[in-house]
Amino acid sequence: MKLLVLALLATVSLSACHPSPSPAPEKKRSDSFDALSAVRPEMLAAFDEAPLAKGGTDDAVRIFYIPTFDHPFMIRHSFSGTVATNRAVVLSGKGGYDPGTICFESSSASSYAQVEDRISRLDAAGFWRSPAVDATQGSDGAVYLIEVVKNGQYRGWKRWAPQDRQKERRLESLNLFLLGEILNEGLVGVACKPLAP
Question: Domain 29-164: which CATH class?
Fold first, then answer.
C-alpha cells in the first residue's frame, strides 16, 4: 500500500509540473460496463460485497484496486434510505491469483452529504466525461475500478495500471481522488500477512 501511495504521489507531482491545458467542457458519458465483468465473482465474495444495482434508490461510490501481485482493496461510500456508511477492506491474497480473506476492515457512519461529495469530486476529476474503459491493457500491473450509482443510474469505469499516458487516459485527477480516498480511510501502513503457500 505504501508503494501505491508513493507511486500516486509521484504521478500527481509530475503532472503538476507539466500541466495540460484545460479541455473544453464535455458532456457526461453514458457508456459503462458491468463490474462483474471486471471483478471476478470470487473476488467480490472475498470482499463480502454484492453487485451495485441500477434502478434503485441507493446512491453509492465503490472503488476497487486489484494489483496482480499485492493485496487488493475496496472502498465503498453508500447511502441507503436514511443510513450512510463508509467501508474499506483489504484482502490477504494477491489480486491476480487467490484473493485471500479479509485481513483489514473498517466501517464508519457517514452522511448523504459525504457520499454526494465523493460523487461531486469524481465529476470534477473527469469520471463522467472519460470513456468507461480504454485500450491500454496488460497482463501484470493493477486494475482500477470505480462504480457510481446516482439517482438510479449506474456507471462503471475501469483502467489498467501502470500509469502510462496519464494525460491521454485522464488519470491525473482520478489518481489524486484515489490517493485522497486511501489516506482518508487509513489504508496506508495496513499490514496483511500473505497467504501461506
Answer: alpha beta
